[in-house]
Write a structure and sequence with these properties.
Elements: E1 20-23, H1 29-37, E2 41-42, E3 51-53, E4 57-61, H2 70-78, E5 82-84, H3 88-97, H4 110-121, E6 125-132, E7 135-145, E8 148-156, H5 161-175, E9 180-184, H6 188-192, E10 196-199, H7 200-210
Parallel strand pairs: 8-9
Antiparallel strand pairs: 1-3, 2-3, 4-9, 4-10, 5-6, 6-7, 7-8
Length: about 220
């Protein structure tokens, strides 16, 4: 990569009140890794320039604080057919296409989708897939650096399928002593699962410590 293509991000403290830090640049692997390493992520609509965000408050889930309801525990016992990194393209495709309540469209543009597929092929982006009778019914994907996992999106075609995916991700992260899952935005759904909102400075300090350990790069289904 030439020096002109390397993106130098501003300090996250310069974000506006909504968390918008800057715009433009590219979604190359090196750029995405540089952004996530500083607590910055891309989020924009089709037709807009690439927008980079570092919100003043951040929703995070500490793996050992994950809450399992009785109904979710029953769903987990009923469906244990879960895999990692076996069909990343389908997972991100469903995340982009499945309609969500209160949302008219998707922020996962074709450009964004292709960028994260390349990041997956490089071993830094991972998917969790939930199957029923060999049919994909739910899952999630995100980015892993050091001992931090940055959750990007999840979907379900059947009730609780995305929660089952999150449960199995949490179990793997507990095994590997990950520090947190970055959930980005505050939602009641995430709060019900044990996630909490923290200030940006606190989040960035957590991230700094999490990045002191080498990343688990590669296919997680084999680990």
């Amino acid at each position: 990569m030439s020096p002109k293509e390397i993106i130098e991000f501003p300090d996250p403290e310069f974000s506006d009140n909504d968390g918008l830090l800057c715009w433009g640049g590219n979604l190359k692997i090196e750029t995405l890794i540089a952004a996530y390493s500083k607590g910055i992520f891309p989020w924009y609509s089709k037709g807009d320039p690439i927008l980079w965000w570092s919100p003043p408050q951040r929703m995070i889930l500490i793996p050992n604080e994950f809450k399992i309801s009785k109904s979710l525990r029953a769903a987990i016992r009923k469906n244990n057919n879960v895999k990692f990194d076996t069909d990343f393209k389908s997972v991100i495709g469903y995340c982009a296409e499945v309609q969500r309540e209160g949302q008219a469209g998707t922020w996962i543009t074709d450009t964004m989708r292709h960028a994260y597929i390349k990041l997956h092929e490089a071993g830094f982006a991972h998917s969790v897939e939930v199957y029923e009778n060999n049919t994909l019914i739910g899952g999630l994907y995100g980015v892993s650096l050091g001992k931090a996992f940055f959750g990007e999106s999840m979907f379900h075609l059947k009730s609780d399928a995305s929660k089952i995916a999150l449960y199995h991700l949490v179990q793997k992260l507990l095994k590997w002593n990950f520090h947190f899952i970055d959930c980005q935005q505050n939602t009641n759904h995430l709060k019900s699962l044990g996630a909490n909102e923290v200030e940006r400075d606190y989040f960035l300090n957590l991230l700094k410590n999490a990045l002191k350990t080498d990343s688990l790069v590669g296919n997680w289904n084999n680990l």
